[in-house]
Amino acid sequence: MNRRALSLLAVLALALLVLPAFADAYVLSVATLILFFAYAGQAWNVMMGFAGQLSLGHSLYVGVGAYVAAGLFVHLGVGPWIGVWAALAACTALGAVIGFLAFRFGISGVYFALLTIAFAEFTRIGFDHFPLLGGPGGLFLKVEQREVVDLANLRGPPVMFYYLMLVATVAAFALCAWMVRSRIGYYWQAIRENEEAAQALGINTFRYKLIAVVISAAMTSIAGVFFAFYYNNLFPEQIFHISRSIEIILGPIIGGLGTLFGPILGAALLTVLADGITELLAALGWEIPGIKQVFYGIVLLAVVMFLPHGVWPMLARKLGLTR
Fold it and tell me: How far apart are CA 70 and CA 234, in angstroms?
């Protein structure tokens, strides 16, 4: 990034820091949702954008991370800051198993994507028949208060969750910026562009693809923990559904796959426009089921046709933000 890009980044960071002082409850909830999808999109971007491994089942890691932390909190009284480590361990193990099975037997491309969908669907069915965690009736977290900040138990007002998600998004951005410029980042990009050529250069493609899957899964599990304690209810049909995975991956694809700002820009565009359409139709008294999904499809089609590299690379060139 050049000096102009760094200046705009500083302005954006300052605007996000002071936003709660000027935003009402609705704007704050939309901003929190944008940060959630920006963070989850950044995590998915590690696997697909950097290493070129297409996952369509990332709702698996959101759901498992959410259920592990929430289950420990509800049944054993274990706080979320300990539960997040359990969620990280569970999703890291899941990612390692999926990656090992896929790469050990040479599963790649669309077949790897189908494998990730299958694991997410198997897990959804499993949790649907797991009464200890609520089964199809859902798992609910107690909400004792929403005014006093209780960071130890992640209980508090919406502004607390906004700042938590902001910190997580900034940390994910910094981690990805470091990784993509490190040796492992260059190995991932070589694998993404031409795996056979990367192998010919002596890169252990099995190891580095597996590392990408594990890191992406671990990062996504934190989004799941946030989801559980922010919404305070979990349903297998809701959190493991493929539509959750699609919502996660659309941000990086539309914003710019393999870029650092793409997932953030894509999440902002999709969330604001989709919510705007929903609110407009509600004001007109129209109720159209599935309108968000239709909107997502139209936007994705437009980006693929006219901006195949995403919105951010084009915008960065227009604003002179890249060297």
Answer: 9
